[in-house]
Here is the input.
Amino acid sequence: MQITVDLDLCESHGSCVFAAPEIFSFDDDDYLLYEATPDDGLREGAEKAAASCPVRAITVAAP
Here is the structure.
């Protein structure tokens, strides 16, 4: 699975962090960090994170 975040669109709402904390987090400066190629077992969380993003900055795709 491949995750892409358009950081130009991202407004750091944090809904992805709540939906999939094993994939998404913030650093000390509130900059979004994420695992671009997480294990396929995390797909459900990744898709929930993408769906919860209010600006639709997250894309989840097959490798």
